[in-house]
Amino acid sequence: MSNNDFKFTAPGMDNESAVRTVKVLSQRLVALLDLQLTLKHIHWNVVGPNFIGVHEMLDPQVDAVRDMTDTIAERIATLGGVPNGTPKAIVEGRSWEDYSLGKGLVVDHLVALDKVYDGVNSDHRKAIGLLGEIDPVSEDMITGQLADLEQFQWFVRAHLESSSGELKQ
What InterPro entries has UniProt attached to this entry (predicted)? Predict the structure, then answer.
């Protein structure tokens, strides 16, 4: 995306900063759209002991992540960018492999979901560092989201943790 692609941006923000911010936010949008779909996929396909607890734990996470994607997309538009949430944009924007489990046991899905959260949350943290240099409003937005995402990962890990604090791998 070049600086010429923006007809406007937020008052007080230069075009170059807006373009850089939109690039970071677009990557987070793709990650969260993918996470939202992955969470719902797990919700539909988890089986075995503790099924209902995990099944019911995931829907509020789906809803919260959906809200996060909406917030990011609207921030992109506010800055003069064009949010792209099409399936093609998600697939082309990913730098990770697709979630590979279908129908599976609770523990298998939660181990895999913990790894998904590792990637999403560490990339959100990197985005905070980048945004801190160019847009404190977007930095604050992503920071708030990360607090929720880290709590969601804690919920997942609570199912995987032993009494000695070890996580199932």
Answer: DPS_DNA-bd, DPS_DNA-bd_CS, Ferritin-like, Ferritin-like_SF, Ferritin_DPS_dom
